[in-house]
Amino acid sequence: MNRVLVVDDEPQIVRALVINLKARKYEVDAASDGATALRLAATRHPDVVVLDLGLPDMDGVEVIKGLRGWTRVPILVLSARQTSDEKVEALDAGADDYVTKPFGMDELLARLRAAVRRAEPVGAADGGAVVETEGFTVDLAAKKVNRGGVDVRLTPTEWHLLEVLVRNTGRLVSQKQLLQEVWGPSYGTETNYLRVYMAQLRRKLEADPSHPRHFVTEPGMGYRFER
Known about the structure:
alpha/beta, Arc Repressor Mutant, subunit A, 2 domains, 8 helices, two-component regulatory system
């Protein structure tokens, strides 16, 4: 049974989410402000966080940054902010997905399920497959990345994106394929997600993120991982 932390200061939205989530056998905690959300996340250890950005005590982006300081829990933003810059800011802070208000409950629940699936560990079906570059090592079975003798902390979404690219080393992976494999079959046009997460992978793993050697962009088509 998965535990969901709902963070929103609109009581009717919280009530609707709690009813729908509990009906689907989720355990649910709720917070109406950022400070309570951070405290509940630390004490209740949710499997996924549904977060509104417009909170009374702090901006939701600050909550994302606070969570990302210590946890990889999937974060699904639920917000009335609809501009591309605002979405990118939330994704860049560490959110995994973004749903704009007003929203359809079925779509939200589908995205929540996808976020939980991305965070679930998978069996070591690759027999200990390890991919090495000059600067870092990717252990597909252990779901770990090591750079310079130090483990690199990746969010579940960052790892999933890296995994798809590494499994296709040397081959172009289209934007649509990446979106659908990492976020789910209902995705295909959210290319800003890819720009944000590729930038994060480059910052964490490339020697020179502005001139990437391993995470190569094929403009207008997709991305390719080179060893």
